[in-house]
Amino acid sequence: MRARRAFAALAAVVSSTLAHAGPDDYVVMPTVEYGEREIELRIGAVSADDGEPRASAASIAFGYGVTPWWATEIYGKWHRDGSTSFDAIEWENRFQLTEPGQYFVDVGFLVEIERPRDRAEGYELRIGPLLQKDVGPVQTNFNVLLERHYRSSEPAVTELGYQWQVKYRWREAFELGAQGFGEVGKWNDWASASAQEHIAGPAIFGKLKLGGRHAIKYDAAVLFKLSDAAPRQTWRAQIEYEF
Amino acid sequence: MPRFVWLCLLAAAATAFAAEPEFTLAIRDHRFAPAEIRIPANQKVRLVVDNQDATPEEFDSHALNREKVIPGRTKAVIFVGPLAPGRYPFMGEFNAASAQGAVIAQ
Lengths: 243, 106
Prior knowledge:
The structure holds two protein chains of two kinds. Chain A is built from one helix and 13 strands. By secondary structure, chain A is mainly beta. Chain A has a twelve-stranded antiparallel β-barrel with strand order 1-2-3-4-5-6-7-8-9-11-12-13. Chain A is globular and about 45 Å long. By secondary structure, chain B is of the alpha+beta class. Chain B has one domain: Sandwich (Immunoglobulin-like). Chain B is built from one helix and nine strands, in the order αβββββββββ. In chain B, a hairpin with a 7-residue loop joins strand 8 and strand 9. The relative contact order of chain B is 0.23. The interface of A and B includes residues 68, 136, 209 and 211 of A.
């Protein structure tokens, strides 16, 4: 009963505008590496339809695996759309809810709070389950995320988005796969198909061990529009130093 | 009646968990003991890793898609499989020169 009340309260809090997956967005994993620290750089660029200027975004983060089930990360985010400007501070929290391989799917949960520089945007909250399933050497991820602005000047709605990833774990230093991101609109009243944003494309991944706790991880993707409202092409890349 | 259904589900879940075979692997002086552990192929198993050293170690296996930090003098459970027959190497990432091993699924 208590859990049901908590869920109802959460649903009420998270119920209000279609957010867009930024070009520096990434597929969040449901696992936590306890005690691991990381410095992360994410970059991305969007080529819109003909005639529109190219936009890009970047973020730098520091993350830490605080407990075996909780990892937290602080991001500084910038975007370039003609000129470069600071965009937001983001606080990401990942919770590992199941041990990898214990159940049919591995489950985690994301709670992310962003404070845009433009105070009129208020605060942005993004939450949702993170799912992973391994089948032999193939790892699949699917995340369903709800996003909503609070204390913003515009009326807020809760939007539904998703991320997915499939990768073939070939060599640790180089793996191949695909990624996709999408936004469907208000969580309980989806936008028309032409107004939804869906992008997907090939991706590469890898981890280079440097000895001891030190390693460099990377992933990069080229994503193409799958719906009318989506940008024509999105490039994204992420590199992190773990120590 | 609902209570009976819940009890049946709980019993079934308990049976399912109990059915997973358990294997133990120790970390001692920054080495795995045994260095090779044999498990049944095509079956999920619980691998209990007992870190007997005072320092933490990270069980790391790209082949098994597992990474887990085990603090000093603690145990951790790592779920492995079901695996096709074969050899799946793992290592202790913090002491990779000595901490090397493999799961043999057969």
